[in-house]
Amino acid sequence: MSYQSRTTQYARFNVLAQNTIPNKTDQFTLLDLGCGLGDLYGYLQDNQYHHIAYTGVDIVPEMLDAARQNYPAATFKTMNFVTDELPEYDIILASGSLNILFDRAAAHAQYIKAVSAKMYASARLACAFNLLDKDVEYMYEQDPRFYYADKQEFLKYCRTLCPAARLIDGYLVNDFTLVLKH
Fold first, then answer.
1. Given 81, 97, 132, 164, which is the most exposed site by the fewest CB atoms within 10 A?
2. How far is the C-alpha of 97 from the C-alpha of 81, rounded, in Å?
3. What superfamily in CATH does domain 6-181 come from?
4. Closest listed residue to residue 16, CA positions, set 182, 180, 162
5. What's the whole-model pTM score?
6. pLDDT tens, 98-108?
7. Residues 63, 150: Cα–Cα separation, whole Å
8. What is the mean pLDDT of residues 112-125?
9. What is the full DSSP assignment across the chain?
10. Where are the domains of the chain?
């Protein structure tokens, strides 16, 4: 399965939602970092998470224009979540947006750590993000646009922020999720 298939995308969303959203009936605010086309909102609606006040942010205006067309009931904003302050939300998620390389891989690890620290500091209940797994990078054609992360390195870092941080893997062969709850 490709990284962009609906099946793999929904598998990622399922792990994020089930491990951060306490239940489907209470009111929660959710910030989706690097929302792209807004498909996390679609997943939440399709799976009966109707009480979530969703906000998607992205730096690419064309993506946000498409997201607004796809999901007119959702809120979408232009934001650089790396340099801008993050507002407080109950839950902050990043699905796929931390995998895109903007610099050297060594610098990218620091970038992910900085963003994950901001996510945790701004989330009232929980934050979570997924990354591509370095352990199975050999199984895929090398794509220079993507960063493949060492899951133990990132789990160790996340536990400096949140001692109870959890690593979830096994839901897809090429990916893992880190969940930090308050």
1. 164
2. 10
3. Vaccinia Virus protein VP39 (3.40.50.150)
4. 180
5. 0.93
6. 998 876 666 89
7. 29
8. 97
9. --TT-HHHHHHHHHHHHHHH-S-SSS-EEEEEET-TTTHHHHHHHHTT-TTEEEEEEES-HHHHHHHHHH-TTSEEEE--TTTSPPPPEEEEEESSTTSB-SS-HHHHHHHHHHHHHHHHHHEEEEEEEEEEEGGGGGGS---TTB-EE-HHHHHHHHHHH-TT-EEEESSSTTEEEEEEE-
10. 6-181
Model confidence at 43: pLDDT above 60: yes
User: What is the pairing mode between strands 75-78 and 52-58?
Assistant: parallel
Q: What distance in Å separates the CA atoms of residue 128 and residue 19, rounded to the nearest whole number?
A: 8
User: Is the four-CA dihedral 38, 114, 27, 12 of positive or negative sign?
Assistant: positive
Quote the CA–CA distance of 122 and 169 in Å, as a whole number: 25
Asked if residue 77 has pLDDT above 50, the reply is yes
Distance of alpha carbon 120 from alpha carbon 179, whole angstroms: 10
Nearest to 54 by CA among 80, 72, 81: 72
